[in-house]
Structures are given as structure tokens and as C-alpha cells.
Amino acid sequence: MAKVLIVEDDELLGRGMADSLADAGHDPILVTKGDVALARLRYETPDVCVLDLMLPELDGWRIIELARAEGIGTPIVVVSARGTEHDRIHALEIGADDYLVKPVSMKELVAHVQAAARRGHSALTRQDGEAIQIEELRIEPRDVQAYVDGSSAELTPTEFKVLYALALDAGRVITRDELLQKIWGRRRSYRDRTVDVCIKRLRDKIDRRASVHTFIQTRFGVGYKLAPVSKETGTPDTES
């Protein structure tokens, strides 16, 4: 059972979401205001947040930005009537984990919430892995965090899980489809940029901060791999 924070100012729709999630065995909490939602994210640590974007006063965009800036790693599933590619990409870039466009079926919502809950739990409770050190990058499963030159990269749980998956197969190219299936639990659809957006965030938080290397490399048309490449020379430190 997951504790699910629903942030939706349409109370009728919010109650429908809550009823569907409760029927699926979850513990839903419905709020209609952004400031209340942010307070609950801060102090009640729900397993998943279902978030509308068009909220009065404090909107969903700002909630995502503030939550991620404060290190709150709760998986956020956006459910919004705003369905343009720009809106979807921007929400993922600032820290949302998933994006559904209204109208959405309750069965689909429940499936996405359950997938988000599994990702969040598996990332946050992983305690058995050894730290992985690659040049100035340290990946620490016990903290669910990565450190660049000794400083926290401030990764969300989903970002950490993608990085950790790449690190466990360091040097091997992992396809976008593999990552999408392994981390998000779904197959890639046409123009699905979920993986690419997450990789961009990882590069902003790791490669840009690193003093000597870049770590997340692209094999164009295939996928990504984790391998240290010198920023100065542009060449790999080791063959991979």
C-alpha cells in the first residue's frame, strides 16, 4: 500500500482519483491548494504525489521546483490538461517523474501511480549495494545519492536509479528501451523523451559539476553508457 498525495483543485475529479486509488489498495490524501500540498510533501513524506499543474496561488510547476530544490525525492506524477510537448518536457526537466494528459482513465492513473511507488520504494530502500567510485564520481546506494568531487549531486530517486543502472553496467551501452523498461516499467512509445530528459538532468548535475571528466556518454541512435572521458582531451581514460 502506498500513501498517495493527490493535488487537484477540481474536487469531484480529485475524489474520483482518491476512490480509484483506495479501491486498488492505496492510501490517498486529497488536497486542493498548492501551499498545503507543499507542506504535506515536506512533513508527511508520501510515497507518490499526483499533481495538477493549474492550481490557484502556488501552481504545480512551482511545487515541483521547490520540492526538488529542497531535496524532496517523492515521485511526482503530473496529471494535467496541458498536453503540449513543451509542457511535458518542461515538467520532466524540472523534476517530475511522469506525465499524464487529461482526460485520463482511472485504470491508467492507478497503473502509473503503482509504477511510481515501486520505483520510489526500490530506490529509497536499497541498502545492500557497495559504493561505486569512478574517478571523481562516487555513487553511494546507501545514501541513494551520488557525489561529485565530494559534494552531493542532489539527485532525485529516479535520477539516482538511472545513474546506478548505468554504473552497474559501466562501459556498456544501455538502450533507451532498456532504461525505460527497467526504471519506468513501460515500453517506449513514439516520441517518448522520458529517458533523454532524465539523462539531460543527470548531465547538468554530474558532468557539468565534475572537475576533470564527463561520465554519461551517448551512443547516437542507440542509448547511453557510463564511462569517464577527459574534459581536456575528449578521450576516454580507459577503453570500454
Summarize the structure.
The chain is of the alpha/beta class and 240 residues long. The chain contains eight helices and twelve strands.
Give an account of the 3D structure.
The structure is a single chain. This protein is α/β, with parallel strands linked by helices. It has two domains: 3-124, Rossmann fold, CATH 3.40.50; 132-230, Orthogonal Bundle (Arc Repressor Mutant, subunit A), CATH 1.10.10.10. The chain has helices at 11-23, 34-44, 60-69, 85-94, 106-124, 157-168, 176-184, 194-207, and strands spanning 3-7, 27-31, 48-51, 76-80, 98-101, 132-134, 137-140, 145-148, 151-152, 174-175, 213-219, 223-230. It has a five-stranded parallel beta sheet, sandwiched between helices. It is elongated, with a radius of gyration of 18 Å. It starts with a strand and ends in a 10-residue tail after the last strand.
By DSSP (H or I, 4+ residues per run), the number of helices equals 8
Content of β-strand: 15-25%
Termini, distance in Å? Answer: 42 Å
Shape: elongated
Main-sheet strand order equals 2-1-3-4-5
Number of domains: 2
Q: Structural class of the helices, strands and pairings?
A: alpha/beta
Helix-strand topology string: EHEHEHEHEHEEEEHEHHEE
Radius of gyration: 18 Å
Helix content: 40-55%
Query: CATH topology of the largest domain, what is it called?
Result: Rossmann fold
How many β-strand stretches? Answer: 12
Mean residue pLDDT: 87
For the record, the CATH class of the largest domain is Alpha Beta
Q: Could you give me the name of the CATH homologous superfamily of the largest domain?
A: Response regulator
| CATH-scheme architecture of the largest domain | 3-Layer(aba) Sandwich
- List segments where confidence is low: pLDDT < 50 over at least 5 consecutive residues: 122-127
Largest sheet, if any?
5 strands, parallel
